[in-house]
């Protein structure tokens, strides 16, 4: 077998078998399954607790009933219970844990409801908000009754304005499509961001480990450093795709199983119901190219350090670049067509995230993403050629070497003066 | 198949690591490569292996330059030892042998034979980081020879080993040589080189200061050692004509002299002064030559 493939499979298989890789994958899978089953999990825990009971002292004795009905209408699990033995005893009961809280209701001078809520701690804003909303409704009705408004008139008053957004550009995305795209792009941006940081790190570590353990000297006397570098990059690429496939597979299955329970929930916001194929293809293409760009960069930065401890320091500028790209992309999600985003999307280090975000969100003429891809590809090739030369010299350099001056030194080592 | 180094120089910027080195090493020979630290040995080895390009001159093996297409016939034991600490001996040696063109089964079979020979068959499934330094060195040596190279480069093969293991490795190296492997090896231990190599070269600041067969080198060095043990006072040699070095020992003196004629004169002078237990004229050791040629500039 060709040496390239030997290194490729060695990198892939030996990484695949490491405990850290298996554990990370399992944990991530658990998180994905957990997220997909979130509603079930929350329900499960809620069932155990049962309903919250709140003691009510109603001085007007006309408010408890309508409030309870309001709460029921809004699906709240709060149970109101009229308390007759006076406020002091009620407070005592709350302190003893018999009730979650004490609600004192009364009417003010204009005959409108006023309330005081007492509880051991007022950290539970959910039940307070529910009660407040309920009371607000009652107050609105009572006030409306005072000026002789019918409930139909009241409903008219609160009806939202009808407003529709229509894009005039041909093929432009409708508001609904845009929302869907935003969710999807958001998720995929996260995937690209984490994958690039995670796997680029892995490559830099791998190279630095081989160098610091000095096994590198044997390796480069058997196989050319350039072959090694690309075999390693591709090996880790396959590894990343394996991990992604596992996660996406598990995610897809668990989402499918829970689809009914989530209808109209979290996931419909993210537009997973109907995903445009082109967005997925762009995501894969930009993911792979982004990976190669940063992996090549990481490999050659990794080849410059001689101790594993220095790896992080060396690749920090690179990580910063990824973070910057991600930040701009996040900002751009709400304003994808600002000139700033447009311009930065052609800078190769940002292209994988920004151009993808624009393609997903806007209706771009075909040449724009293609131009971005071409620039990205050319950069990768230049970086690969340059990186391979630095790598070749860098792996032979030992000593205190963690500055960018070493790039020059490494190139000098490679240079033949024939 | 001859390893030819012709007028090779290597410069790093303004620093010259190797200067105009020419060596020819015939097939099936063991060639000693000596030099103080920083003399340019490792740089020369790296140039032989094609890891570094020579600034001037050329290096050929069997008339062809050495590159990655010939890597399967070359074995290399670097001075800086290193293996994957987390990998099992089996996995990494098979991996390294496969990179040098061996197939999996042969590599594993050969590896078992070598471990058996070094009396450590139980290391096959151990991680390298679990082994002691000396044992790691054995594994590293196996990594260099597993694929049966025709040209073997050993950079300090015996450093850090106990005497028993030195013998074990030495006999393995000699056997490889008898099987027809051309071996270039460097060492700081002169007695190893003296014992094993017919030809050698001493590097100093990038240039070869001594080069040739061991016998010729010793002969042309001229100086000899004279050991005298006697019951009477042996002082007074410090300014004796023809004596270049004096070292006092509890039993007498060790002298370095310019030639046999000096020994004759000394013998005439001391006969009759008392009982002479010992009077031996010795060939200079490689150690003496090395110190003379290289050490002088340190003083």
Automatic annotation (TrEMBL), chain A:
The keyword Transmembrane helix applies. It is a multi-pass membrane protein. Residues 19-388 form the ABC-2 type transporter transmembrane domain. Pfam families: ABC2_membrane_3 (PF12698). GO terms for molecular function: ABC-type transporter activity. One of its GO terms (cellular component) is plasma membrane. The chain crosses the membrane at residues 21-42, 184-208, 229-255, 275-302, 314-333, 339-357, 369-391. Its main location: membrane. It is found in: Cell membrane. Keywords: Cell membrane, Membrane, Transmembrane, Transmembrane helix. InterPro entries: ABC-2_transporter_component (IPR051449), ABC2_TM (IPR013525). This is ABC transporter permease. It comes from Robertmurraya kyonggiensis. The lineage of its organism: Bacteria, Bacillati, Bacillota, Bacilli, Bacillales.
Automatic annotation (TrEMBL), chain B:
PANTHER family: ABC TRANSPORTER ATP-BINDING PROTEIN, ABC TRANSPORTER ATP-BINDING PROTEIN NATA. It comes from Robertmurraya kyonggiensis. This is ABC transporter ATP-binding protein. Gene3D superfamilies: P-loop containing nucleotide triphosphate hydrolases. It comes from the Bacteria. The lineage of its organism: Bacteria, Bacillati, Bacillota, Bacilli, Bacillales. Belongs to the ABC transporter superfamily. GO terms for molecular function: ATP binding; ATP hydrolysis activity. InterPro entries: AAA+_ATPase, ABC_transporter-like_ATP-bd, ABC_transporter-like_CS, ABC_transporter_ATP-binding, DrrA1/2-like_C, P-loop_NTPase. Keywords: ATP-binding, Nucleotide-binding, Transport. Residues 3-230 form the ABC transporter domain. It holds the Pfam family ABC_tran.
């Amino acid at each position: 077998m060709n040496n390239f493939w030997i290194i490729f499979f060695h990198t892939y298989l030996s990484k695949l078998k490491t405990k850290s890789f298996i554990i990370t994958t399992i944990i991530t899978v658990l998180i994905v399954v957990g997220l997909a089953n979130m509603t079930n999990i929350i329900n499960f825990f809620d069932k155990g607790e049962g309903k919250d009971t709140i003691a009510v002292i109603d001085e007007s004795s006309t408010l408890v009933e309508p409030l309870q009905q309001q709460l029921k209408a809004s699906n709240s699990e709060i149970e109101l219970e009229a308390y007759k033995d006076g406020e002091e005893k009620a407070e005592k009961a709350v302190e003893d844990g018999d009730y979650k809280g004490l609600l004192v209701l009364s009417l003010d001078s204009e005959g409108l409801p006023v309330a005081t809520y007492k509880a051991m701690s007022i950290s539970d804003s959910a039940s307070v908000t529910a009660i407040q909303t309920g009371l607000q409704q009652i107050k609105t009705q009572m006030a409306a009754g005072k000026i002789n408004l019918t409930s139909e008139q009241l409903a008219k008053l609160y009806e939202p304005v009808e407003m529709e957004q229509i894009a005039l550009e041909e093929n432009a995305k409708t508001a609904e499509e845009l929302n869907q795209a935003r969710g999807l792009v958001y998720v995929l941006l996260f995937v690209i961001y984490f994958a690039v940081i995670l796997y680029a790190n892995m490559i830099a570590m791998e190279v630095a480990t081989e160098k610091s353990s000095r096994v590198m000297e044997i390796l480069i006397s058997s196989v050319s450093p350039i072959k090694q570098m690309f075999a390693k990059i591709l090996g880790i690429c396959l590894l990343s795709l394996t991990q992604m496939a596992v996660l996406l597979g598990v995610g897809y299955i668990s989402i499918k199983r829970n689809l009914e329970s989530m209808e109209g929930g979290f996931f419909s916001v993210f537009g997973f119901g109907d995903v445009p194929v082109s967005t997925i293809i762009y995501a894969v293409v930009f993911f792979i190219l982004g990976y190669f760009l940063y992996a090549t960069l990481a490999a050659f930065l990794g080849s410059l350090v001689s101790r594993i401890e220095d790896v992080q320091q060396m690749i920090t500028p690179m990580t910063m670049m990824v973070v910057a790209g991600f930040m701009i992309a996040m900002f751009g999600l709400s304003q994808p067509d600002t000139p700033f985003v447009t311009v930065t999307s052609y800078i190769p280090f940002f292209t994988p995230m920004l151009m993808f975000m624009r393609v997903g969100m806007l209706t771009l003429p075909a040449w724009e993403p293609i131009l971005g891809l071409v620039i990205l590809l050319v950069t990768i090739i230049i970086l690969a050629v340059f990186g391979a030369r630095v790598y070749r010299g860098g792996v032979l350099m030992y000593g205190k070497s963690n500055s960018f001056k070493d790039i020059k030194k490494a190139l000098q080592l490679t240079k033949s003066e024939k | 198949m001859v390893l030819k180094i012709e007028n090779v120089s290597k410069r790093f910027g303004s620093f010259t690591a190797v200067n105009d080195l020419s060596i020819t090493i015939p097939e099936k020979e063991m060639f000693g490569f000596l030099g103080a630290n920083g003399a340019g040995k490792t740089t020369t080895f790296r140039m032989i292996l094609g890891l570094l390009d020579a600034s001037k001159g050329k290096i050929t093996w069997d008339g062809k330059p050495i590159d990655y297409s010939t890597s399967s016939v070359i074995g290399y034991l670097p001075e800086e030892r290193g293996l994957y600490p987390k990998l099992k001996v089996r996995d990494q040696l098979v991996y390294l042998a496969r990179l040098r063109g061996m197939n999996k089964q042969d590599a594993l079979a050969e590896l078992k034979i070598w471990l058996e020979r070094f009396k450590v068959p139980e290391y096959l499934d151990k991680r390298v980081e679990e082994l002691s330094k000396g044992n790691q060195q054995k594994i590293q040596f196996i990594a260099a020879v597993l694929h049966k190279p025709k040209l073997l480069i050993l950079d300090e093969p015996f450093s850090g080993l106990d005497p028993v293991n030195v013998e074990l490795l030495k006999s393995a190296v000699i056997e490889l040589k008898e099987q027809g492997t051309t071996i270039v090896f460097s060492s700081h231990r002169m007695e190893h080189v003296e014992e094993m190599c017919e030809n050698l070269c001493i590097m100093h600041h990038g240039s070869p200061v001594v080069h040739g067969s061991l016998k010729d080198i010793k002969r042309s060095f001229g100086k000899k050692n004279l050991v005298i043990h006697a019951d009477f006072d042996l002082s007074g040699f410090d300014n004796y004509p023809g004596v270049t070095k004096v070292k006092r020992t509890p039993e007498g003196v060790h002298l370095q002299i310019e030639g046999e004629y000096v020994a004759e004169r000394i013998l005439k002078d001391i006969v009759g002064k008392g009982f002479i237990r010992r009077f031996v004229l010795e060939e200079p050791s490689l150690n003496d030559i090395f110190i003379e040629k290289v050490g002088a500039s340190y003083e």
